[in-house]
Amino acid sequence: MTSQAVRIGALTLKNPILTASGCFGYGLEYDDFYDVSTLGGICTKGLSLHPRLGNAPERICETAAGMLNAIGLANVGVEAFCTDKLPVLRRRNVTVVANIFASSIEDFVAITERLDREEGVAAIELNVSCPNVKEGGIEFGKDPRMSARVTEAVRKKTRLPVWVKMSPEAGDIAAVAMACESAGADALTAINTIRGLSIDANRQRARLANCTGGLSGPALRPIALRIVWELAGKVSIPIIGIGGVFTANDAVEFMLAGATAVQVGTANFSDPRAARRIADGVQLYCEARGIGAMDLVGRARP
Amino acid sequence: MDATAEEKRRRELITAPLLRRESIGDQYHVLTFDVPQGIEARAGQFTMLRGAEWGDAPLLPRPMSYLTAGTMPSVLIKVLGEGTARMARAAPGEPFTLLGPLGNTWQPPSPGRRPLLVAGGVGVAPLLFFARELAASGIRPIAVYGGRTARDLPLEDELVEVADVHVTTEDGSRGRRGRVTDVLPALASDKTEIYACGPDRMMAKVAEHCAERHLRCEVSLETPMACGYGVCLGCPVPLTDGSYLYACTQGPCVDAARVAWGEGAHAPIRRELQGTP
Q: What is the C-alpha separation between B183 and B194, in angstroms, rounded?
């Protein structure tokens, strides 16, 4: 039996498979399907300082091998998360990565300080790359200096590892990645969705109320894989790969490209057991070759 | 009301072969599945349905109201897009994944009130299921069933077995010419409770009529959704109090008076499509 454990900086995960923010709720919605604590971890729905209602419908639509979403970061807020959701996750020994979102550095810091007071948070993932909100979000993530400022401010205020989620829309994503590394990021998550558009030809208007939405799903996968590949050559901190992972083979590809762990997002909607199935598949892949999960990392790199 | 803890506990993901597909014209099909262990769904609840061998596309499962439950659960589909077109071509034996039961059930009628079901087209499915449940407890509801043409009244004969049915078609090819809301006023009274499922435009009109006369009206909402259990947050329904309700976990059956009809999205009326077809 080979080891499936992977190390993301000081944090060790049971296995390399996590669920992606926005595609797994708060981790409590999957009890009927499997034991979520057996995953490498879960990333929460993006948490803001105050609860958010989110965008008007329509918020989602399906596209070729993918979907667009413009949810608008509807969430319960960090306080309700800490009081209502986290205690349950803690009791169940779930590895929790708190994904957080704000439109100012002050709010990023305030959310971080609130989470830092809690037991049971394994890491904080900074969403500086949401394409669907008017302020903050992607504007931070497109700019190396702004990304670094957010990362540095949060880094100073917490004992927890800080991951930064990369936007594929940054002009120079490697520059953003290196700036975050210099600012103290413990890991990078790559990538968030890419903005897309779908128009209903019968009704002659955009399908989403927000018009554009973030594209996720298999359609995104080759782009995400390429970005992980590029970033792995630029930074020395671990990369968590994400983008259209539907099968164990997809996850393995991300690891071979240089990711230390992989997040499963949209696949959870097609199959609520997707992340568990993928984790099992990666283990089988490793056992068949007599190697551990860490041995996969960057193995396809020249 | 929210799905109870008990209902949530019973939901599961089942892979089951298609037992048979019955076509009703070229647009409507009843798909029946072979589930030996049975599905304990009640009228109003829905399943997220997807071909087990679809691969990457169509990507998402489609929300479908149960027409029947038990060991031979079935759904009524209308062909609206790629997903439903694939379902309409499915052959017996083809495996599907059924996630459910999801969502809440119709509220039972109050004592002394007769249920009045208002169905539009494919919206007949959860109401026919409900009428059969009511029949089992000795209640025979009134039903108003409308479609564009005679071809848009799937399962009319089945409905007639368990309800006193009034039919309308927009082109007059069957029943009374007009819409369900043309016959509803004469049938509805303070001795009835209204249950509606159909296009949003129809449900909005029914809700408006019931609100004017202070009649209780429950609707089964239909919105696009990716997951079906409260995670994707893709199915918000605007409410009159300015908040949203999620059709998957807080619906699909909702008191019509709570819904801000016409305020959904950028459209005057919310989309009339079944899930993300």
A: 13
Question: Which range has the worst mean pLDDT, A153-157, B70-74, B273-277?
Answer: B273-277
Based on the number of CB atoms within 10 Å of its own CB, is A263 exposed (0-12), middle (13-18) or buried (19 or more)?
A: buried
The answer as to whether A302 is a domain residue is: no
> Which residues does chain B have within 8 Å of residue A59's beta carbon, measured at their own beta carbons?
233-236
Residue pLDDT, tens place only, B85-107: 999 999 999 999 999 999 999 99
pLDDT in tens, A96-111: 999 999 999 999 999 9
Amino acid at B170: E
Catalytic, A180? Answer no
Is the Cβ of B262 closer than 8 Å to some Cβ of chain A?
Answer: no
Q: Would you say how long chain B is, in residues?
A: 277
Give the total number of structural domains in chain A.
Answer: 1
pLDDT in tens, A222-245: 999 999 999 999 999 999 999 999
- Any domain includes A20: yes
A133 — pLDDT class (breaks 50, 70, 90): low
Q: Domain range for residue A167?
A: 6-296
| Alpha carbon B2 to chain centroid, angstroms | 17
Residue A103: closest CA among A128, A72, A131 = A128
Q: Do B236 and A25 touch (CB under 8 A)?
A: no
CA A293 to chain centroid, in Å, comes to: 19
Q: What CATH number corresponds to the domain at position B186?
A: 3.40.50.80
Structure confidence by residue, pLDDT tens digits, A73-98: 999 999 999 999 999 999 999 999 99
B126 occurs within a structural domain? yes
Using left for φ > 0, alpha for ψ between -120 and 50, and beta otherwise, residue A196 falls in beta
Instruction: Answer whether A24 sits within 8 Å of B231, measured CB to CB.
Output: yes
Domain that holds residue B112: 106-201
Helix or strand holding residue A99 (H, E):
strand A96-100
The arithmetic mean of pLDDT across residues B4-33, rounded, is: 85
Is residue B11 included in any domain, yes or no? yes
